[in-house]
Amino acid sequence: LGTLSSPNSLRGLTFKAAVLIQQWYRRHVARLEMRRRCTWRIFQSIEYSCEQDQIKLHNFFSYLMDQFTPSSSKERDFISRMFISGESYKEAELEKYCDYESIEVPDSYTGPHLSFPLLPDHATALLEAFQQKQQLHARYVLNLLHETRKHLKQLPNISHVSTCYSEEVTVCGDLHGQLDDLFLIFYKNGLPSPSKSYVFNGDFVDRGKQSLEILVILFTFLLIYPKEVHLNRGNHEDHMVNLRYGFCAGLSTISRVHGKKILRMFQNVFCWLPLATLIDQKVLIIHGGISDTTDLEMLEKIQRDKFISVLRLKKRKESSRKPQIEAVNGESEAGTDAAGNEAAPRLSLQPQSAQAPNTANRLEFSRWLRQTVQEQIDTCRRLMDISESEPEELTYSSVVSLKDVDEPCWTRQEEWKQVLDILWSDPMPQEGCRENKVRGGGCYFGPDVTEKFLDKYSLQFLIRSHECKQEGYEFCHNRKVLTIFSASNYYEIGSNRGAYYQANKTAHMLTMTQRISRVEESAFRALREKLFAHTSALITAFRSYDGDNTGKITLSNWATAVESVLRLGLPWRMLRPQLVRSTEDGMLEYKSWLDDLAMEQRSQEHIQSSLLEVIYRNRSNLETIFRIIDRDHSGLISFEEFQQTWKLFSSHMNIELTDDGINDLVRSIDFNKDGNIDFNEFLEAFRLVKQRPS
Amino acid sequence: MEHDWKIVQQSSDLGEGKVSDRTKAPSWRIAPKVSGCSSGTDGLIAEIEKKITEAFEVFDRESNKTVDGREIGCIIRSLGCFPNEAEVQELLAKIEEPDGFVHLENFLRVMTEVLLDRRFQPIPEDVILHAFEALDENKCGYITKEDLVKHLTEEGERFTQEEMEDMLVVALDPETNTLHYRDYRTKLVVDETKTFPFNV
Description:
Chain A: Belongs to the PPP phosphatase family. Chain A: This is Serine/threonine-protein phosphatase with EF-hands. Chain A: It comes from Taeniopygia guttata (Zebra finch). Chain A: One of its GO terms (molecular function) is manganese ion binding. The complex is a heterodimer of chains A (694) and B (200). Chain A is α/β, with parallel strands linked by helices. Chain A is built from 25 helices and 18 strands. Chain A folds into 4 domains: 19-63; 114-313 and 412-504, Purple Acid Phosphatase, chain A, domain 2 (4-Layer Sandwich), CATH 3.60.21.10; 512-608, Orthogonal Bundle (Recoverin, domain 1); 611-691, Recoverin, domain 1. In chain A, the strands form 5 sheets. Chain A has a 6-stranded mixed sheet. In chain A, strands 4-3-2-13-14 form a 5-stranded mixed sheet, covered by helices on one side. The longest helix of chain A has 61 residues, at 7-67. Chain A is globular, with a radius of gyration of 28 Å. Chain A starts with 6 loop residues before the first helix and ends in an 8-residue tail after the last helix. Residues 81-89, 313-363, 376-408, 504-515, 603-611 and 684-694 of chain A have low confidence and may be disordered. Chain B has 200 residues and is mainly alpha-helical. In chain B, the strands form 2 sheets. A two-stranded antiparallel ribbon of chain B has the order 1-2. In chain B, strands 3-4 form a two-stranded antiparallel ribbon. The longest helix of chain B is centred in the N-terminal third of the chain and has 19 residues, at 40-58. Mean pLDDT of chain B is 74; it is low at 1-39 and 194-200. Classes of the chains: A alpha/beta (694), B mainly alpha (200). The interface between A and B is large, with 39 and 50 residues.
């Protein structure tokens, strides 16, 4: 760099030095940024593939519905039990089943006491109690839920909020059980009050550990300040989703005895949450998004409580099936039910060739077919969440036609799509509107759809949530759509910020410290688990590149092979140093690499690794299915049910498991003498215990 | 992807990348996409292209093979290069579209050259040390916050205020408000070698 002499050369020297330092430093920052983005990508791809799993689960149920013809009434019972959960109750039944008055609050209880009507003091007491990690007694929870339900029932599907310039409206996005984020919002922004309105845009529960606390607080404020607090339904305020993502599990740990009642009540409260909020007729707030068929008039008029779970009513794939029936019968049986109404969702009627009688005898076949059709229709109608307050099991359209002849007669299907789109859609940068295959529900909607929609209803702006954003918020579609996400550190500490939006003010940010390496660690751990779960497929893929059976492949082929198996769309070459420790001359010994992965994951030595792999890969599906089978949420299923479930599951997933394999599994669990399995214990035994680095 | 490749030779004196006067005896033959086991120069180039594409796609927010021009510097650097701002701008000028975005195919073309040429080599550790020492007038092993800010925001390729603040947060010893540059440099070097060692 030269020696120091005259001031000029000194200045020149420091100038050059500055350039170098800046150059070097900028490189460092760029690398950090790249790591951050890669980590983000990992989390996102895993999350979405999880959501795809959820969809696969639904395909599984559809498959059962379509293909499985129960051979005995016992089997049929068993299957139908899987589907009938979350029925909506008549008012009286609900009060009877989920009653709280009989529940005594013991003297030893030190938590907050609620009395109705609620007052601001109750809210403060609750906030303080939850800050000190206390719990609210089940009696008060149930009482609160009953009152909340009564209040929500009076609300329209779309809440209307009006502001004058002096009044603030704060919009919060997904909270996902992260109570600390809610506290932070209240701390920074203030509690709800007559001069401070709040809109909470859905997804209050699941994933985070304090879903119940969040709901209690939100409902409390809702009842105290009904004009100022508004809640929108999110896709997680949905029974089927709760089963999967932890809300249900959380409840049963809180109160074994009352957990069931509380869960039942929640089902009947969630379905009454409004679907959207409109501020000043100008800003629409919905949880997911819109589609090119979103119709606000329809949304305002439908009976929203009918949709306890938006996920259960799945459209049948009929195109490939109808022709077969027509060929056999010469007439189409599809689309009509016993009452002759068109409203039932179209059914697929696929005769199972293995179980159908000999097709040579057409008469017999058509009789069998009619019978199967009838059974399918019956099952399907039971799925339709038809409220038992209806005296007979009427389809929706017939109800409408009885009530008001002038009302437009929408099909159940159309209404369901409206709700599904609102709760599940995501914006996309390209124009148009297409099916959201990643989530399996709702649409991807483009800027043109937004434009048209805002135009049609004279709106200025859409606010939605549903997607986690690194900065907690993101504008798109020419700043006409704002995504707001309030659960910070959603994937891991440091993964993202949370944000909330204030009308008439610039978007406000919550800042959390971002520690990149910690987040990275977590992301890579999750990724390694995924890799392990696909061990056999990976070996096959690697072998295809190792023609000479040397046991080694190039790193380039490693990357290609891994992507072909996992299909996560990740930059594997960038990630490689974190996943592959040792290489020789740019070649990887894949078998020992996979063994290393397995060692990390294996928690119980006596279980064969292939079985473990299967369980890991399908773990969350298994959990969900088991929870569905345990209808009364008691935590017990019979040994027989367990075996049957496993068989069904494995046949659908094309898993080869011998009876011995299943027995081995069972033997490693304690089940009590009466043949019941406490499957929580079972799941715990196989659950990977995630430990956060301290 | 079109294969309208210009033939480039290895060259150590960094020109402007003007290719037209270098097409004598090409030592690299650039072939279209190579499948199967990679070996030799064809495989090498294919591998480089994959790496470039991967890095590009991480920043491709909308998955439409374009990135914001302002992120190009970041991408280039994460591929193992140490360009200064002027060099980044020069590269950007070649490939930036009027709307400020960069398309993958253009980036790929330019960046492959860069990597094959081994342009923008890393700054050796001792050079950086000397650079810090040049700012340390009294040779006491540390630089005061004021001096640091003055030099880096007023001289060289100036830091923005944000960049300066970001650096200070990590680099300054909070008690003395000074930068002990030896430690700092070592710290950053260690961080770097943990991830993404990029070998052409």
